[in-house]
Design brief:
Blueprint: H1 2-17, E1 23-33, H2 37-46, H3 50-59, H4 65-69, H5 72-84, H6 89-101, H7 105-116, E2 127-130, E3 133-135, H8 141-148, E4 161-162, E5 173-178, H9 183-198, E6 202-207, E7 216-218, E8 222-228, E9 255-256, E10 259-260, H10 261-267, H11 272-285, H12 294-297, H13 300-310, H14 313-325, H15 327-334, H16 341-357, E11 366-369, E12 372-374, H17 381-400, H18 405-412, E13 424-425, E14 433-434, E15 472-477, H19 482-496, E16 502-507, H20 521-535, H21 538-550, H22 560-570, H23 576-580, H24 590-600, E17 607-610, E18 613-614, H25 622-645, H26 655-660, E19 665-666, H27 671-674, E20 679-680, H28 695-700, H29 703-713, E21 716-719, E22 728-734, H30 739-754, E23 758-764, H31 776-787, H32 790-801, H33 803-810, H34 825-834, H35 838-849, E24 859-862, E25 865-867, H36 878-901, H37 907-923, E26 942-945, E27 954-960, H38 965-980, E28 983-989, E29 1002-1007, E30 1026-1029, E31 1037-1042, E32 1047-1053, E33 1069-1087, E34 1098-1102, E35 1110-1113, E36 1120-1125, E37 1128-1134, H39 1138-1142, E38 1143-1149, E39 1160-1164, E40 1170-1178, H40 1204-1213, ...
Parallel strand pairs: 1-33, 5-6, 13-19, 15-16, 22-23, 27-28, 33-40, 41-42, 41-44, 42-43, 46-48
Antiparallel strand pairs: 1-7, 1-30, 2-3, 2-5, 4-6, 8-29, 8-31, 9-10, 11-12, 11-27, 14-16, 15-17, 17-18, 20-25, 21-23, 22-24, 24-25, 26-28, 32-33, 33-36, 34-35, 34-37, 37-39, 38-40, 44-47, 45-49, 46-47
């Protein structure tokens, strides 16, 4: 008992130490209002298909009624319950995750924004728009429909919800804007869904909430970092300390938080263990961050891993999160952890294996879900949710099909051959007349024959002459057609020049027997050719054809006379009648060519195949063809080289056979079968009953259930493999009372007979309502399948399908008279006479609802892939079935069959399973290759969590070093993942050894929740927030938001300086509120005629009512551009003025309007990045004009990057008054650019502005980088502009994803100073002067603007040399810089002037970015990024040196030169390290006056704000000012 009392006293004591909690919280809200959960849920369900969406909408018609009476939590649960009717448990969990992420909020908001563009009629809870006319009442619909036809149809977007009515194109489109679940919606929905069902109109629904809640919606899925700004981590003491051998635990006399453990242990020896624990606890919870010695750091990564592996596995991930995210304050406690040697050894063995197999090295972080690689630099929680959903379809499908455990992984990882778009035709066919043979003709005998020759080095572009038929060209020609002439000449050219190309012809001529050479030139030509080939040889025949063609005049065709004249002239002895006439001996194989051409399924003549691959019609132009063939030879050579190198092609191989055994070779071309756009049936449902006799019941099933019933009840004609299984299952749907239907089934049965492993099922789709009369044949087929042995049934049905049998039946012959020997007649007759037609009605329903066939239409389904409906005349032959079987097998059916075979089940069941699994796997979108993971050993280094039994599970493998940025992000992600879905998790500790510096220098939070959170009173919690509690108070911290690529966020509220958080000086919590200001629309633009990006081209983005809301300029790097937007439908246009005059948009990808539409429409409806491609072309009459030419500004001036502020500031400053007088305005404004971050620098910035204004009479416009300004600065700047009469604009640009990212905030800001000058400012700005925030100006900057740069794009001031005592600190005087600069000076980046016209003209921005990209990969280069980069580029982009007096700074310049200084910069002094504030007051006397003047202004503004009762963030500025002056 005594022990307990003592320990509890000790623990009570601890609480006295802890003071009021201090910490930091950061939140991020959307720019738009909260969207209702019900609408987000409908969007989630809509992703599973339109049918489900509308069923869900019907189910929740009036759900909002419950909103009033219920608490928010129970209403939310009600929505989940309703959604649960359409979703599996796994999908409901994913839905909760999606709602917590607000993943579908942008989709709902996009509709809302489209509605606002309509615009909505006044006070209307819901309204319809019918071709542009609106109404709030259902009564007006009829009237509006009548008048609609005359007006253009509205444009529908890809993701609009269209009611599944009758598909008609000529009816009006009605768009309903309403909120699902409300009464008003229901009344509209009832009317519109009925009318759509009747085919009177097309009904489209878009979400519209009439009065959205003003509540802000907090987002998640981003990271927040508190980076340590101080230098204490760098102050590492690396003197070697002798290890005294004393263990930390034995160091008894130390005092921890007021407890002297030496004494305690003496007085309570029986509490030895507990005291050790308590001491350890106190040590860890102390937040004092004493720097570690170098030798203490070495093993931290292994120590963290050992610590994680030592706790119970359910706590391990949380511990990993805690250690990585709070590492700076946990580091000391980790140094005391011992690492077992077996753990170290195991980690090293696994690392060796990982680096060999997948190239993962120690310290790398990688995540794999079901073997798919998830790159966390690219993926965010929103895209991971999409991956989880995509995987869920396949996983649940396999689970429903009864595939569990290990089999799941094996089937998932099967290679599904991606759809090939270059199929080849087999060219080993007797109908091809080969003119030459590279392997055997004497002409080529001097060439080497070995395939190894391919690997011999040659000059680029040289075609290797090897005596093998590596390259084969087959031309299909009609000799009489004009196009054939040039192609034959081209073939002769190849032959003459000894190009190693085997050339073959297939002449397609008339096949009628009675036609002869005297009446048909084609036949005559063919016979003559045969004669010459017989008498001489084929190459002679080719020459003859060419000389014969040479006699034909241009534009003429070959005639019978020309042929006989040629024959007489060349072969006077020959008997023309015997060669060309009716009795010709040279007519054999005339039909072969035409037959081969017909069977091949190729398109229109003339045609060419290169190694079997057809060339497209536009490649067949004879002028182009020569280049194309030579290019193909070059391309194919590399493929052959690889094959030889890999040993697939050897000396003994027949090259043509090798080519024709590749996976893409098919026996015939059929675009329907080979097309890449494929639809599949979903076999994964488990219907409650499998009844198709009851048609009414069947009609209520959804598509998946109908399909499952069909699969269950289907009977087959089989021809099984030796193992009794069929890998290919074909269903034939059609009307077998029609000739075409019978033909189709007959072809299928013929194929079954010839091919083991195929089975055929038959579905009836009669042209009328099914009755006894129109299902005669089908009922006979079905009865024979039910009662006869397989072979007998097949033979009987084949007999039935022949035309003579159907004629007999029509004449009145009875079915029983057609029965054959070996059939069980009685059983057949009994079945045939008692078959009802109800089940055929169900089949017809299946054809209508699932296969989308009209009655009587035909389709073929192969392992679930739907081909059809067929056109009336479309034939599907035995050869087509052979092709279909080959394609199905090579896709994945063969692999699936091999795996199913190992499961050991009955043949029919196994064949069904192969069909269902194959359909499931090939329908899934083709991702990248799935990796298989096996760790050599996993007892000490792999954290394993097993999945729950008998449920669908995800296989997740993470490879991570617990002390890296990846671990900071991955550990919370894995925790949430394991809450959302059932996972089998393996986390491998991929530790780095021998660390020489602290692995992490920041605190981090990843904001992510697995479900919507509620407060105790059942209201929704305000939302996810990043919370940093228990932070150490001594270091100086800076807050950085790490958001998905396309998000543009800004701080909107925070009284504190988020750039310098010092908890010692703060009482309570530092709160930071951010807002997602824009979602970026990014793109790449190219000029089609040059293939180059059109530099200086401008795009604008807006809506129909406001076309110019945002704009941008295209960069030369990758033709990149970015535009600010938000959820909604946007119109992208070329900017009015030069851009629109010179260029036009030709095509675009990734947008939401047809590729050739003039207006480029882009819908932003998710948090994912949206990247589009635009191709433009100069207008014909402007072909020689240049966008950036000298006179380019005279027309189409635009004077703002339409920032949110520009309209606001113009109203204050009259900025727009001189707009018309463009030229004058341009000359007369001083454009000053500056960047600042943190309250101290913003204070300097205001003083700099004041000093600029005091020394000039010219109007000034300031440009600030918005990205890093504090909320308080943005609020006060407007008042300052009003008081001092200047204009200002806030510009922003998101660092492009392809440009090397900087992680340190200061370096990012430096990057913005120099890297984006060409795209930050409008083209109308000619010159911009950059002035550092901590500068004081003493002269008129107009002088600097007008300074002659002598053709250089920018001017910088060189560093002063006059202060002698600083010589040792002038790094540019020695080493790299001295040799690189030569006689040039090193320039300072605190002040520079840029001639933007020249800068853009010579593409300086693009050059700077290119050089930056190359240098920044090395972390040690560009230590002062904004200064080093232009100095490094001095040879490529010239710098004009400004006179020295333009920049004076005490560190480098002597005191005598201060008198003439035009600006004074407060440079850091590396020698004295004097704080900026004291330096400012000491060096610049007027600085204090300026400072006081601005303080007075801010105070006044604060007072007026207080009087209005609108507290301003700047109220808290006093405290900060005091801190600044300390």
């Amino acid at each position: 008992m005594r022990n307990v009392i003592v320990l509890s006293l000790l623990l009570l004591n601890i609480h006295h130490v802890i003071s009021a909690p201090k910490g930091v919280t950061a939140s991020l809200s959307a720019k738009w209002s909260m969207t209702p959960f019900l609408l987000e849920t409908s969007e989630f369900i809509g992703e599973d298909g339109n049918e489900k969406f509308w069923q869900f909408v019907d189910t929740v018609k009036e759900l909002t009624v419950y909103k009033q009476g219920e608490s928010v939590r129970s209403y939310y649960n009600l929505i989940l319950k309703k959604a649960g009717q359409f979703l599996t448990d796994l999908q409901v969990n994913l839905l909760k995750f999606a709602l917590a992420l607000r993943s579908y909020s942008p989709a709902v908001q996009a509709s809302q924004q489209i509605a606002s563009d309509e615009p909505p009629p006044e006070a209307c809870p819901a309204f319809v728009s019918i071709h542009g006319q609106h109404s709030c009442s259902t009564k007006d619909i009829k009237k509006l429909l009548k008048a609609a036809a005359g007006r253009p149809k509205p444009y529908l977007h890809k993701n609009d919800h269209t009611y599944p009515g009758v598909n008609k194109t000529d009816v009006p489109v009605v768009i309903l804007y309403a909120e699902i679940g409300t009464k008003k919606f229901t009344s509209f929905h009832k009317v519109l869904s009925e009318k759509a069902g009747e085919g009177i109109l097309v009904y489209v629904l878009r979400h519209f909430v009439a009065d959205p809640k003003p509540q802000k919606m907090l987002l998640s899925g981003y990271g927040v970092e508190l980076a340590i700004k101080s230098t204490e981590y760098k102050a590492v003491d690396d003197t070697k300390v002798k290890d005294s051998g004393a263990n930390a635990e034995e160091d008894n006399n130390d005092e921890v938080q007021g407890f002297v453990f030496g004494k305690l242990k003496k007085s309570h020896p029986e509490l030895q263990e507990q005291l050790v624990e308590l001491r350890k606890h106190l040590l860890e919870s102390t937040n004092d961050m004493v720097p570690l010695k170098v030798w203490e750091m070495q093993d931290l990564s292994f120590q963290a891993a050992a610590r994680i592996m030592s706790v119970p596995k359910f706590d391990a991930l949380k511990l990993m999160r805690d250690l990585s995210q709070n590492f700076p304050s946990k580091a000391r406690s980790l140094t005391r952890v011992a690492v077992k040697p077996e753990m170290r050894k195991e980690i090293e063995e696994n690392q060796k294996r990982l680096s060999e197999s997948i190239g993962v090295h120690p310290g790398d972080g990688e995540l794999f879900i079901n073997g798919l690689h998830i790159d966390l630099d690219i993926h965010n929680p929103f895209s991971i949710l999409d991956i989880l959903r995509g995987e869920a379809r396949v996983l649940e499908g396999l689970h429903n099909l009864g595939i569990k455990g290990e089999h799941q992984g094996k089937l998932l990882r099967l290679p599904v051959n991606a759809v090939d778009d270059s199929y080849a035709l087999d060219i080993r066919h007797p109908a091809i007349m080969w003119i030459n043979d590279v392997e055997n003709d004497l002409v080529y005998r001097s060439w080497p024959t070995g395939v190894q020759e391919l690997l011999r080095a040659t000059f680029p572009g040289v075609i290797r002459q090897i005596r093998r038929n590596l390259f084969n060209l087959v031309l299909f020609l009609d000799p009489v057609r004009e196009e054939s002439v040039e192609l034959v000449k081209l073939a002769e050219l190849f032959y003459k020049h000894k190009i190693p190309l085997r050339i073959g012809f297939v002449f397609v001529v008339n096949t009628k027997d009675e036609i002869d050479g005297s009446s048909d030139a084609g036949v005559g030509f063919f016979r003559l050719l045969n004669y010459i080939a017989d008498e001489y040889d084929l190459s002679q025949a080719l020459m003859s054809i060419v000389s014969m063609y040479n006699k034909v005049d241009a534009g003429e065709t070959l005639s019978v006379d020309a042929i006989s004249a040629y024959l007489k002239r060349k072969f006077p002895k020959a008997n023309a009648e015997r060669i060309l006439g009716v009795e010709s001996e040279y007519d054999d194989k005339r039909k072969d060519g035409a037959l081969f051409y017909k069977k091949s399924g190729l398109g229109a003549l003339p045609l060419a195949l290169f190694n079997g691959v057809p060339l497209s019609p536009d490649e067949m132009d004879p002028d182009e063809l020569e280049t194309i063939i030579l290019q193909r030879i070059m391309d194919t050579t590399t493929t052959f080289q690889r094959a030889v190198f890999m040993g697939q092609l050897t000396e003994g191989s027949n090259v043509v056979d090798y080519l024709m055994e590749q996976a893409n070779v098919v026996p015939r071309m059929n675009p329907l079968i080979l097309s890449t756009d494929r639809k599949y049936l979903d076999f994964t449902a488990k219907p409650v009953v499998d009844d198709w006799e009851d048609t009414t019941m069947f009609s209520y099933f959804d598509s998946r259930d109908k399909t499952a019933v069909m699969a269950k009840r289907m009977k087959y004609f089989t021809n099984t493999d030796e193992d009794g299984m069929s890998a290919v299952t074909v269903w034939i749907a059609g009307d077998f009372e029609k000739v075409s239907g019978r033909k189709l089934l007959l072809s299928a049965l013929k194929r079954v007979k010839a091919s083991p492993g195929v089975r055929v099922g038959v579905i009836d789709n009669p042209s009328g309502k099914p009755s006894e009369d129109n299902t005669v044949l089908y009922r006979a087929i079905w009865a024979s399948l039910l009662t006869q042995k397989n072979k007998a049934a097949a033979e009987f049905v084949q007999k039935l399908l022949r035309e003579e049998s159907s004629q007999l039946l029509q004449k009145g012959t009875k079915m029983k008279d057609l029965l054959m020997q070996g059939m069980d007649r009685d059983a057949f007759e009994k079945k045939y006479n008692t078959l009802e037609v109800d089940f055929i009605r169900s089949q017809q329903l299946f054809c209508r609802d699932v296969l989308k066939l009209s009655p009587g239409q035909q389709a073929v389904i192969s392992n679930g892939r739907i081909l059809g409906p067929f056109e009336e005349q479309e034939e599907f032959t035995v050869e087509d079935f052979q092709l279909l079987e080959k394609i199905t097998l090579s896709g994945s059916a063969e692999n699936v069959k091999a795996k199913v075979k190992l499961m050991g089940m009955k043949a029919k069941h196994a064949s069904d399973l192969v069909m269902k699994v194959d359909a499931l796997l090939t329908a899934a979108p083709k991702g990248e290759v799935r990796r298989d993971f096996h760790f050599v050993k996993d007892s000490h280094s792999v954290l394993r969590l097993s999945p729950r039994e008998n449920e669908v599970f995800y296989d997740v493998v993470a490879v991570v070093d617990p002390l890296t940025r990846e671990a900071q992000k991955m550990s919370p992600l894995l925790i949430v993942l394991s809450q959302v879905v059932n996972v089998r998790l393996q986390v491998f500790m991929n530790c780095r050894a021998k660390l020489s510096e602290m692995p992490l220098k920041s605190f981090y939070r990843f904001v992510l929740e697995s479900d919507v959170n509620f407060l105790a009173n059942d209201t929704v919690s305000p939302g996810p927030v990043a919370r940093f509690m228990e932070l150490p108070e001594s270091p100086l911290l800076t807050l950085i938001m790490i958001t998905p690529e396309s998000w543009m966020v800004q701080a909107v509220r925070s009284p504190h300086d988020l750039d310098n958080i010092h908890l010692q000086e703060v009482s309570g919590i530092v709160t930071a509120e951010y807002e997602l200001e824009h979602l970026l629309l990014e793109g790449h633009c190219f000029d089609l005629s040059t293939g180059q990006p059109p530099r200086g081209l401008q795009f604008t983005l807006g809506m129909s009512r406001d076309p110019l809301m945002y704009d941008t300029i295209v960069m030369a790097n990758l033709g990149y551009f970015q535009l600010k937007a938000n959820p909604g439908a946007w119109i992208l246009k070329l900017r009015k003025g030069r851009s629109e005059e010179i260029y036009q948009v030709l095509t675009h990808d990734g947008t939401d309007s047809p590729a050739d539409a003039g207006d480029v429409l882009v819908v932003l409806n998710s948090f994912h990045s949206k990247i589009i491609k635009v191709r433009v072309q100069k207008k014909v009459e402007k072909i020689n004009e240049d966008l950036l030419s000298e006179n380019s500004e005279s027309n189409g001036i635009w004077d703002s990057i339409a920032s949110v502020w520009s309209t606001f500031e113009k109203s204050i400053t009259g900025g727009g008054s001189k707009k018309d007088d463009g030229e004058k305005e341009k000359e007369d404004v001083l454009n000053i650019f500056s960047v600042a971050s943190g309250h101290l620098y913003e204070r300097f910035l205001r003083i700099m502005m004041l000093s600029v204004l005091r020394h000039t009479k010219t109007p000034v416009k300031f440009w600030f980088l918005k990205n890093y300004l504090s909320p308080s600065f943005k609020e006060t700047i407007a008042h300052m502009a009003e008081k001092y009469g200047f204009q200002y604009e806030l510009v922003q640009y998101k660092w492009p994803r392809w440009l090397h990212q900087q992680t340190e905030k200061q370096r990012v800001i430096w990057g913005y100073k120099i890297l984006f000058l060409d795209v930050l400012f409008p083209l109308a700005v000619d010159k911009i002067i950059f002035v550092d925030a901590d500068q004081i100006v003493r002269a008129d900057l107009k002088e600097l603007r007008d300074f002659d740069l002598e053709g250089a794009p920018y001017g910088y001031t060189p560093f002063c040399d006059s202060r002698r005592e600083m010589e040792g600190y002038r790094f540019w005087k020695s080493g790299y810089w001295a040799s690189h600069l030569g006689h040039r000076k090193y320039h300072i980046s605190a002040l520079y002037v840029v001639d933007l016209k020249k800068f853009r003209k010579i593409a300086a921005g693009d050059r700077l970015r290119g050089q930056y990209q190359a240098l920044s990969q090395d972390p040690n280069s560009l230590s002062n990024l904004d200064q080093d980069l232009p100095n490094n580029m001095i040879h490529q982009v010239v710098i004009k040196s400004l006179p020295q007096e333009w920049l004076w700074c005490e560190t480098w310049c002597d005191d005598t030169s201060k008198v003439s200084a035009k600006t004074i910069d407060l440079c850091n002094n590396p020698k004295t390290k004097e704080p900026k504030l004291t330096a400012a007051a000491r060096i610049v006397p007027e600085w204090v006056e300026y400072d006081n003047e601005i303080k007075r202004l801010l105070r006044q503004q604060e007072d007026t704000a207080t009087q209005k009762h609108t507290p301003l963030p700047s109220q808290h500025q006093k405290a900060d000012d005091r801190r600044d002056e300390l």
